[in-house]
Amino acid sequence: MDRATVTEKIIAAKVKDGLRWADVAQQMGLSKEYATAALLGQMKLTADQAAVAKRVFGLDDEETAWLQIVPYKGSLPTAVPTDPLIYRWYELVNVYGLTIKELIGEEFGDGIMSAIDFSMDITREPHANGDRVHVVMSGKFLPYKSY
Amino acid sequence: MDRATVTEKIIAAKVKDGLRWADVAQQMGLSKEYATAALLGQMKLTADQAAVAKRVFGLDDEETAWLQIVPYKGSLPTAVPTDPLIYRWYELVNVYGLTIKELIGEEFGDGIMSAIDFSMDITREPHANGDRVHVVMSGKFLPYKSY
Amino acid sequence: MDRATVTEKIIAAKVKDGLRWADVAQQMGLSKEYATAALLGQMKLTADQAAVAKRVFGLDDEETAWLQIVPYKGSLPTAVPTDPLIYRWYELVNVYGLTIKELIGEEFGDGIMSAIDFSMDITREPHANGDRVHVVMSGKFLPYKSY
Amino acid sequence: MDRATVTEKIIAAKVKDGLRWADVAQQMGLSKEYATAALLGQMKLTADQAAVAKRVFGLDDEETAWLQIVPYKGSLPTAVPTDPLIYRWYELVNVYGLTIKELIGEEFGDGIMSAIDFSMDITREPHANGDRVHVVMSGKFLPYKSY
Amino acid sequence: MDRATVTEKIIAAKVKDGLRWADVAQQMGLSKEYATAALLGQMKLTADQAAVAKRVFGLDDEETAWLQIVPYKGSLPTAVPTDPLIYRWYELVNVYGLTIKELIGEEFGDGIMSAIDFSMDITREPHANGDRVHVVMSGKFLPYKSY
Amino acid sequence: MDRATVTEKIIAAKVKDGLRWADVAQQMGLSKEYATAALLGQMKLTADQAAVAKRVFGLDDEETAWLQIVPYKGSLPTAVPTDPLIYRWYELVNVYGLTIKELIGEEFGDGIMSAIDFSMDITREPHANGDRVHVVMSGKFLPYKSY
Amino acid sequence: MDRATVTEKIIAAKVKDGLRWADVAQQMGLSKEYATAALLGQMKLTADQAAVAKRVFGLDDEETAWLQIVPYKGSLPTAVPTDPLIYRWYELVNVYGLTIKELIGEEFGDGIMSAIDFSMDITREPHANGDRVHVVMSGKFLPYKSY
Amino acid sequence: MDRATVTEKIIAAKVKDGLRWADVAQQMGLSKEYATAALLGQMKLTADQAAVAKRVFGLDDEETAWLQIVPYKGSLPTAVPTDPLIYRWYELVNVYGLTIKELIGEEFGDGIMSAIDFSMDITREPHANGDRVHVVMSGKFLPYKSY
Amino acid sequence: MDRATVTEKIIAAKVKDGLRWADVAQQMGLSKEYATAALLGQMKLTADQAAVAKRVFGLDDEETAWLQIVPYKGSLPTAVPTDPLIYRWYELVNVYGLTIKELIGEEFGDGIMSAIDFSMDITREPHANGDRVHVVMSGKFLPYKSY
Amino acid sequence: MDRATVTEKIIAAKVKDGLRWADVAQQMGLSKEYATAALLGQMKLTADQAAVAKRVFGLDDEETAWLQIVPYKGSLPTAVPTDPLIYRWYELVNVYGLTIKELIGEEFGDGIMSAIDFSMDITREPHANGDRVHVVMSGKFLPYKSY
User: Fold this and answer.
1) Are H147 and J30 in contact (CB under 8 A)?
2) Over pLDDT 90: what percentage of chain G?
3) What b/e readout covers H18-55, taking b as 16+ CB neighbours within 10 angstroms?
4) For residue H98, is it left (φ>0), alpha (ψ between -120 and 50) or beta?
5) Nearest-Cα residue of chain I relative to residue E80
6) B91 is annotated as an active-site residue
7) What residues sit in the active site (chains A, B, C, D, E, F, G, H, I, J) (predicted)?
């Protein structure tokens, strides 16, 4: 057994039982973004959060233990994602990559936007011409300091 | 001469004269994100917007014409970016990729968040523990329809 | 169980029973292009369409549930396809890629032809020197708008 | 001097003088698809067609000779195209690749749709919800024959 | 079950029973090149040819059905083959690639040598300094035609 | 100056003066295959053969010296060739790779067909349904010997 | 002119004049690690530090301006470095990668060792059997926090 | 059974029983870095050390024998690691690669820092602004000698 | 069953029973280099040699038959090997590649050192500063001949 | 100016003046292997050795200084070499890679054969069936030691 097996079982249970990530997240007291990432093997859960997952997805003790372990991260099977929805995000990084770097550099100086001290919120933005996906990301700016 | 030559000249002028993208964008009547992307060769400008660039960066007529052409997009020299700031964004797509797909799928059904009918706003979010980079993205949801 | 297992089972049933995609599509009330893509794990089906698949391919309830889930798309095992029929299409994109970009750009301006709001129809075109494959594709033009 | 240099000169002339591929194609007596591909270094021109290009783009004799040579084909700088418009076509091949193979196989048997005995026509398809890109492709079916 | 499973079974039976491709091909009334390619999952067989394979390799009905299906082609596990015998062929394409293109172009004009309307014959060529592998390949020339 | 510069100059002279590889080869007393490969930087020439090239292509002494040097071989810009004519050869290696290995192994035992002690002859094969490219290759079989 | 040109000029001046990175760093009031990285185009310098570089390496004003710009980072020409000294470091990451992850995870929990809030010190460690390279790295631990 | 199977079993036992690498290492009389690398299949153990592992992780005799075999090293599934913690180390090599080479070269001459005659120590460095990961690496300098 | 399965079984038997390649080779009347390569699936054995392997490793008849088959060669899981011992050999090819080519070319003319008509002997070379690995390789020079 | 420019100049001078690496090496008091590698930019020379190169190849002072700098190593343009002579060496590493690892492991234990404390000698081995390339390599064995 490894973490991938547990992830597969969680997804299969979700499909079979028609569960919703957002509902599970709520029961865990987590945002839907963090909870889903954790259940997909990208973040670790606390014992209490894992207990919710155990109940909801019908996991056994060993599987539940895996949810509390620091996982090897990376959720995509290829370096350039083939799935159109995920590719669009890759495309944004590719098309806007230098732009983002220039603008953060202009505002903050040399450094990065943290992908660790980070949160994300994805919501529906109603719009007359068709609803939009609204994403808010917040990452701490970490400056390079000379030494 | 090609588009890359013009981009290089624009950047060199910016470095030499200590210009700011945000200032140039304002003169063009554009967001700093769109304007910077355009000046870096990812978007096209209108004749009026190009005229601002011409003046600011000291371009000649032929160079200015290139700014109004549909460019071949893609701003990164490698498929996986090496620059740490840009890599963090790639990492977010990699770590959160399936999560994003699952949550958009759960809320909207099968489809994508458009990277074309799209806007982005990057701002400074003051914070006691260190300021944060705040990003808002809005992309139209485009559903797959059966036929 | 995952989506790939279901796809494999569908294909095996088709081979064993000598079924035709076009016939199954008709029973589903879908074009053969959309139906085949869906059965191969690239599109999702409605409950009614999945029920047809269940009956035709002898699937169980859990397998049928997988057909109604948003799938992770991408049907090829390598970035450059090795199969000659599919490679020819890749080759068209490679040889005509810039041409397509230039001509759509000339007619519509900067933007893309949607691969989401899209349909395709593949038919036999009788011809004295050997029949031809006739393909009609229709994708909504999506313009980049400045902001 | 090589073919790439001539292509670059043609594109630069087009940008500078505001020419349209469709107009040049008409003067050559060719479809806009074939003519553009040829001018971008993917097809060869006859002496007469090259003479038109010479006049329109201001080429010298040596450059004009290059237009009549069989070129090394392939118009994209990377195996997976980064430009969003061209990527969408790559995506179609990726998402629909197996579907296309299955349907052509079902209708014609084992073989390919030729990318050589081939033509393509790209036009604007007016539509109330936004105009569409309409593409017709016709390629001879070439069967594998046993021997 | 998929085509790869059947191929594996065929090879295992061949190893176990000490069969020869050339003998099987003869029983099928096919060249050894086509028959071997088909048995290795690269070409399809007719019902009669598949019946021979069924008997020789001890296949069941379902496995025999797979032999009559259009297969996804491509027999090598890596884009650049590691096996020395196959690599030498890759090397020939690499070293002589432009030469072949130039000479076919010089003789025939712009187009390709078909890999579909194609046959190959591999024989032993006795030679005092060591026998040679003699290969004859014949592929229809397919010209690009302007349109 | 390096070998690539000389190759480029040879090709440019050929285009400008409308030369034919086959004619130059004849003047050198070489097959068109070997001569073209050599002129394209894949084989070395003797002093006499290089003298012919010097005269025909208008090379100077230093350029002529480069033709007599052992070159770094490999004529293709990418591992998988994008040019359709050359790709078809790559495809043959991919589709028929295992078949070729099996048949040579069956006839000769473990070893390779030499790509060094090798010759190739490409000719036109007239045919009622369209002329064919006829290729004869002959490579010494080199057996692995145990030690 | 771009940053790479300036880097090249700095290295050429260093080779020509026999300068030492450690000496230049001292004049800048920086560690040799930070200063060298900056001079090689990986970090930015302050105006004062750049003024030292200007004097030492004989740069002009425009070149000096480039040293104060946030650079696009990444100093290696290939994803897997070919240089043996640098490869050994890549090898350490490859061989010890999971070990490092497990041990940091065991001590700190889920998170990373920052490569931004980071310093490195490389010194000579005298040793009877041959001196050793002694490296001390210190990076802030950044924990993933749930949200 | 192969080494990967044993590694997987060790990790699974650790997760199930909540073991700590540091504790197991202590029982083996090894540093936590060497012991963890060995248990993850990157180093070999002596019979005594393997006996500890046998007891702690509940291995059988055959599994224990595998721990004493020279393993095929390399612990990462991709050339560029996707896991953020490990990527930061890759990033350090990428960003500081040339710097490290220059500084070791300046101090020691041409050669490498050994990754074989090497040790590493990872500890917690308490810090008011957040604890840091403190890493000490020591590798023998190996000079290239002329011959 | 395929060749990889047999290789895996041989290695597992060797680990379990503490066998030595050199001893098995001696029983086969082969050099340790050839025998080991064969047992690892890179060379084929004669019936007599395979019979030794059968006895030593406890193989059944079918597994023994696989040892006498021409194998698909290539023993490394990645194009650039990650194992440090094997990587050093790759590094030698990379660092000394052009040197080897130049020196063989200078001594022999254009051609290759055969990797087929080849033998290798690896021995221990005692040395006061630490024993050395002594490797002797002998490969027939195969000249390119013009035709 | 960088090291590659100097290498290019050295090779061009060698071609133009018909020099031999072996002769230059002798004048430098070095083996032909080390000297050639150094002149091709893979090793550094002492001042005296560089002075020989200066005289022989007609270098100026700055170019001569570059020969005494620690170079960034790696002499091949692609990870898998396309040149047949060099590829054969790559093939040997690929085919015999695991064999080499097993045999060195069996004789010496876990460790590597150094590519730094290393020498190589390439000579002609006369043979009735055609002369052979005889290669002797000697690399210090470096053991992994536990810590």
Assistant:
1) yes
2) 99
3) eeebbebbeebebbbbbbbbbbbbbbbbeeebbbbbbe
4) alpha
5) I79
6) yes
7) 88, 91, 114
Contacts with C61 (C-beta within 8 Å, 6 or more apart), sequence order: C54
CB contact, 8 Å: E90 with chain D? no
Considering CB atoms only, which of E80, E84, E95 is closest to J80? E80
Angle between helices I84-108 and J84-108 (to 10 degrees): 140
* pLDDT at residue number B138: 98
Contact partners, residue G17, CB within 8 Å, separation at least 6: none
E34–chain D Cβ distance below 8 A for any pair: yes
pLDDT in tens, J93-142: 999 999 999 999 999 999 999 999 999 999 999 999 999 999 999 999 99
What is the residue whose two structure tokens read 């691969």?
C115
Neighbours of B47 (CB within 10 A): 10
CA nearest to H62 within chain I: I16
The CA distance from F138 to H45, in Å, is: 53
Contact J91 E84 (CB under 8 A): yes
Q: Contacts of residue F8 in chain D, CB cutoff 8 Å? A: 2
Among the listed residues D88, D86, D52, the one whose alpha carbon sits nearest the alpha carbon of residue D68: D52
Nearest CB among A75, A76, A97 relative to B75 is that of A97
Residues of H carrying an active site annotation: 88, 91, 114
Phi, psi of J43 (to 5 degrees): -135, 165
pLDDT, tens digit, 9 for 90 and up, residues A68-109: 999 999 999 999 999 999 999 999 999 999 999 999 999 999
Mean pLDDT (whole number) for E12-37: 97
Mean pLDDT of H102-121: 98
Q: pLDDT band at residue F1, thresholds of 50, 70 and 90?
A: confident
E112:D116 CB<8 A:
yes
Radius of gyration, alpha carbons of chain J:
18
pLDDT confidence of residue H108? 98
E146 strand-pairing partners: none
Q: Is C61 exposed, middle or buried (0-12, 13-18, 19+ CB in 10 A)?
A: exposed
Burial of D48 (0-12, 13-18, 19+ CB in 10 A): exposed
Catalytic residues of F: 88, 91, 114
- Closest chain F residue to the Cα of J9, Cα to Cα: F1
Token pair recorded at residue G4 = 């790479």
Whether H63 has its CB under 8 Å from any CB of chain I: the answer is no
Burial of G61 (0-12, 13-18, 19+ CB in 10 A): exposed
The angle, 0 to 180 degrees and rounded to 10, between the axes of the packed helices E32-39 and E47-57 is 70
Indicate whether B1 pLDDT > 90: no
> So what's the pLDDT on residue C1?
83
Neighbours of chain I (3+ CB pairs under 8 A): E, F, G, H, J
Cβ <8 Å between G74 and B80 = no
Could you tell me the pLDDT band of residue I1, with boundaries at 50, 70 and 90?
Answer: confident
Give CA–CA dist C85/E73, Å, rounded: 9
Using the structure block, give the residue that is written with the tokens 């060698």. J14
Element (H, E) at B57: helix B47-57
> Does position I127 have pLDDT exceeding 90, yes or no?
yes
Check whether H21 has a pLDDT greater than 90: yes
Q: How far apart are CA F88 and CA F92, in angstroms?
A: 6
CA dihedral (A104, A108, A110, A116) positive or negative = negative
What chain J holds in terms of domains, given with CATH numbers, is: 3-66 (1.10.260.40), 84-143 (3.30.1160.10)
- Give burial (CB, 10 Å; 0-12/13-18/19+) of J18: exposed
Q: CA H50 to CA H66: how far, in whole Å?
A: 9
| Helix pair A21-28, A47-57: axis angle to 10 deg | 140
Contact call for J109 and H143, based on CB within 8 A: no
